[in-house]
Amino acid sequence: MVVAVPPETFPAEHHNRPYLQQEASFVNPQVLALCPNAEGSCRQNTDELEEEDLVLRIEAGEQGNIPFLVIRPKLQNSTKEVLRRPVVICLHSTGNSKETMRPFMRAYVAVGMDARNDGDRGRSPHAYANALVAAWKTGQEMPFLFDKVWDLIKLIDYLTGRPDIDPQRIGMMGISLGGMHTWFAAAADPRIAAAVSLIGVQSCGWAIAHDQWHARVASIPQPFEAAAQDLGKNEVDTDTVAAVWQRLTPRLMDFLDSPHTVPAIAPRPLLVHNGEDDPRCPIEGLAEVVFRTAERYKEAGALEHFKFLAEEGLGHTVTAAMGDGAITWFNKHLRPESTV
Fold this sequence. Notes:
- There is one protein chain.
- This protein is α/β, with parallel strands linked by helices.
- The chain has one domain (4-333): Alpha/Beta hydrolase fold, catalytic domain (Rossmann fold), CATH 3.40.50.1820.
- The chain is built from ten helices and nine strands.
- The chain starts with a strand and ends in a 7-residue tail after the last helix.
- This is AB hydrolase-1 domain-containing protein.
- It comes from Ceratodon purpureus.
- Residues 88-318 form the AB hydrolase-1 domain.
- Pfam families: Abhydrolase_6.
């Protein structure tokens, strides 16, 4: 049982070598150029930027502590007046940590958060996989999507109370699983003023119906293998995959699937950037998502606030152009004169 506690924030230990359960192999090396490595410190541009390593406690228990990193420009004015700035929350992929998002944390105030069972919340080789298996077995937690979206809502509660953050200009971006968290959080929380999902948007219902779930399952095989065994099957099949999705993320294959939840972000600015040949996010399964979302933005008189890109010849990979595109999107929609 999850026990909520009064939220509190306290300093966290800074890590030069954050714990990773997986290497971000699908991220282009150009994007990772600013990531921490064994030879260097995590910190960068210390003459221009200042950092805070913090923990937000929202629940009792180990996963109730949210480690997060705040990077912001140093005060330049002589009066040291605290200016309210836009903030961009940057969300990492499966098995990674907030520190791996540093290449994207280069505008405004930037915040990186360790997802449940990753980074400082999962300091063992199989923490995330074990959490997914436990969720299948017990159904008591939802560590794949919903619990993480709840964390993001509580993090936004904290950020809106900071004197250096403009609560009307909160952006969020994520890659892969972080891109899924971005789409669900933006659909659930209207305080997110602009969003960018990189190689994250997909249709689980379409994948089940068209037998195109294999690449996604291969990225996190453990809960599906456990389910197949529990269901008396010799191998993972379509029924097994559907059962796991229903257990871990109820209704993900129907009214919480992307054709229904991505349009809910309208009319707020949304950039979706995928690879045309991404087997985890099959492009054929996104036709209905893109159509419904564009229709919703058109109805709201804000079609220019929605952009979908499918990069030709690209698989499940994040490129430097995607990172630059995300920053350009936020520059356009979170700048002071923006009405969003």
